[in-house]
Write a structure and sequence with these properties.
The protein is α/β, with parallel strands linked by helices. It has a single domain (6-202), classed as Rossmann fold (3-Layer(aba) Sandwich). Helix content is 40%, strand content 25%. It is built from five helices and seven strands. It has helices at 6-37, 71-84, 121-131, 149-166, 174-180; strands at 43-47, 63-68, 89-93, 106-112, 132-143, 184-192, 196-202. A seven-stranded mixed beta sheet has the order 3-2-1-4-5-7-6, sandwiched between helices. α3 (121-131) links the parallel β4 and β5 (132-143). α1 (6-37) packs parallel to α2 (71-84) and α3 crosses α5 (174-180). The relative contact order is 0.15.
Length: 203
């Protein structure tokens, strides 16, 4: 069976992506996003901007560059950017694993529910580390494998479906991957047990 290119998969899914995720957004994710985005400052890079769900929550005094590897998702994000009248946001087609920015470019790097999908998460995280300024801060809002075997049971059950649909894994150990990439973790807040975590790390 031929495996679809991840970007092409998201291009196809972009038209219904927000509808698909709307129950989770209404129940909790929008609240989590607002909390995470309140922590950004300066020149901000958002990795995996997707359909632009975070754009509503950025403070007005920051400069945002949002990247995504899916042109379909970026089209949706651009529509939101225009609707919100955001002139401090720039959107670019770019792969997180091979970013075109210079070293030490951004004050803050943000990812929300992204590193469950990046094909080589440690490579992507090392790129995030590279483009972050020394002393800069990364804000990770991610879902990942729990330390509880019981809590992992539903994740294992959902894994085949979600991986086939979006190429996403619910069982990655993202906190460990963040450390492998060289970041120093300053704070971890469990938002939904320890499956969804808000992680603040520095370079």
């Amino acid at each position: 069976m031929k495996i679809m290119n991840p970007a092409k998969r998201y291009d196809k899914f972009s038209k219904i992506y927000d509808i698909f995720e709307s129950p989770m957004e209404m129940m909790a994710f929008s609240k989590y996003r607002k909390k995470a985005l309140s922590l950004v400052k300066g020149k901000v890079l958002e990795i995996g901007v997707g359909t632009g769900k975070n754009l509503l929550y950025y403070p007005p005094d920051v400069e945002v560059v949002g990247i995504d590897f899916s042109s379909g998702m970026l089209e949706k994000a651009e529509e939101k950017r225009k609707e919100l009248g955001l002139k401090n946001v720039k959107l670019l087609l770019m792969d997180t694993q091979n970013m075109e920015f210079d070293d030490n470019t951004f004050d803050t790097v943000v990812s929300t529910f992204v590193f469950c999908t990046v094909p080589d998460p440690v490579k992507g995280l090392k790129e995030a580390y590279r483009v972050l300024k020394p002393g800069g801060r990364t804000i990770f809002l991610e879902h990942m494998k729990s330390q509880s075997k019981l809590l992992n049971v539903p994740l294992y059950l959902m894994e085949p479906f979600i991986k086939t649909l979006l190429g996403t894994s619910l069982l990655r150990e993202t906190q460990k991957n963040i450390e492998k990439a060289g970041f120093k973790i300053e704070k971890v807040e469990n938002l939904f047990f320890d499956i969804v975590r808000l992680i603040v790390a520095t370079k």
